[in-house]
Write a structure and sequence with these properties.
heterodimer, A: 411 residues, alpha/beta, Rossmann fold, six-stranded mixed beta sheet, four-stranded parallel beta sheet, 12 helices, 16 strands, B: 285 residues, two-stranded antiparallel sheet, 3% strand
Amino acid sequence: MRDDNEPRHDPSMPNRRRFLQSAAWTWGAVAAGAGSWVLRPTWASAQGPIKVGIATDLTGAIGYAGNANANIAKLVVKEINGRGGVLGRPLELHIEDTASNESVAVANVRKLIQRDKVDVVFGGITSSMRNAIKDVIVTRGRTLYIYPQLYEGKECTPFIYCTGPTPAQQCDEFIPWLMKNGGKRFALPSANYVWPHVLNQYARKVIEGNGGEVIFEEYYPLDQVEYSATVNKIMTNKVDVVFNTVIPPGVGPFFKQLYEAGFTKRGGRLSCVYYDENTLNINAPHEIEGLASCLDYFRAVTKDEPGSARIQADYDKQFPGPIVFAAGSAATGMYRGLKLWEAAVKEARSVGREAVAKALDHAKISEGPGGPAEMVPGKRHCKMRMYTAVAKQGTYDIVARSKGLVDPKEC
Amino acid sequence: MEGVISAVFEVLNFGAIMVLVVLGLGVIAGMMGIFNFAHGEFVLLGAYTVYLFHTWTLPIWLGMLAAPVVVAAIALVLERLVIRRFYAVPVIAMLGTYAVGLAIRESVRGLIGGLYRAVPEPLIGSIDIGAVHIARWRLAIVVITVLVMVGCYLLLTRTGLGLKVRAALENPSLARASGLSTTRIYAGTFAFGAGLAGLAGALVVPVFSLSADLGIRFLIQGFLAVMLGGVGSFEGSVAGAALIGVMSAALPWGVAPVLADVLVFLIAVVLVRLWPRGLTAGRTV
């Protein structure tokens, strides 16, 4: 009911209620569009822009990785647009936050497909994320999907292309190196989820095939932070090589307890195939001195690989700060994926899914992080160079590199 | 033999860490009846304070001394602004503290770039007794935990201040009628519990490395410990935490680790069923 004695406000004058209403609207708008960013090109073409969708974890537990993915996508798109775009059309970047949370992700990726109608989607970091969003993109969305992260393999769905390393690429040359530079007795301590399980199956085959022995393979809850029982088993069984797939938060305390028990001091070799420049900071340098990793790129590669050096320099210039360009967070696979897709669109002279997929099947790039890369025809996975690096006082030294491009051996 | 000694020490060490983390939670839950979901984030803030001291190249131990004070001060502000409004409605208070915790956690995540940061121990190296290596810092944690535990117990049971706190929590109206300011006592107790959390975070960060999710790891087990020990008792929380910590560290020596994790909860639930009022019911502060 209205009180006639209430002082009348000039409608154009702000009052408290009006302020609250508009504030509510603003917040509502922010909430509805939360996690969406559009980066429009600075020039236009008659046919309109090509829409590139990026779905990655900008927030949440693996936000550091997602932001590196978004950064590298901005860098590549800017570079492509600066050179005149693709097929005379500029690229328009649509970035959606998958928030390290599969249910949030599905809703946001749906926006990319249904609202923005993007021509291709890049992204997803964890396998659980890929599995959550792939159906939305590929089956119901009828859109091409490029997955950039190192992973356990076996993703053979048509129209999904993987541009990160597979178990074969991370094990075939690395495990023999570990045997030569560590020993034949392996322990496989692992976090209890799909990647370690499937990677270990492959690693075990390579270890046993090369005359090594798996002393134990054990799985831990993802948030376990106390590893005394495991460390004891490693020490008393005289394990030579710890092939680790325990992930943060457990990996820090685990490596620390191993160090305190004197594992590296007595000549043990620590190894972990997702370890890159980001994860180096989890422990103090002396605790993981000698840790070996095998990835498609390390910053140390820039010393004698001019293509990688250029990409790294561009990245550091455009994105100084804590979010670094590193292989373990899928950023290198994102670069590779975008460039391979660009090559495919140019060859196909179209952005149609079937035409691009056909060209992407054998796409090649001569320059990328770590060197050139090419898709293996019919396999939807990518051949690339692999590097073995050892942690030394808080950085990596490259100690071995593949002779040529390593086969992913998938599908 | 060496194996047994080091195993016992490692198990004891994790038990001590659990007690340290749960102490503050137990004080707040037991004395105030509030399940503080921001407890993990107070632990995180303590850890973050030490990390800041480390980045400013100040001594780590100085950061560890400062952490409880800093966290208690922040908690005092939060209590005045948010928590005190919810004393009458514990469920809402739970959600309120959860929101506070979320805000703290995500802020810290932004500040450290979402990454893990190593913080060095103030005491490096190990004490070697034959073939047994005991890390000095882990030993220090056990010793400090015992001291803090005894200190808290004496404070609550043997001092005038402790008496007032217990009086205000047992019977607020009578305490007020007797001239005690319950508002100030509640605020003080909340800040004290948070300060303990800050201390815990500061002491354990060299062991676990700093990350935004540092505190969450302990939250559920912490609540389980408080339930197990009996809500409303100081010794109960300590006993519950020690039991949960020791079980978490000891079970993986015998059974598959994935199973051990479940077993800890299973055993705790059974114990809660057998002693619904807690392990130390009726015999406590």
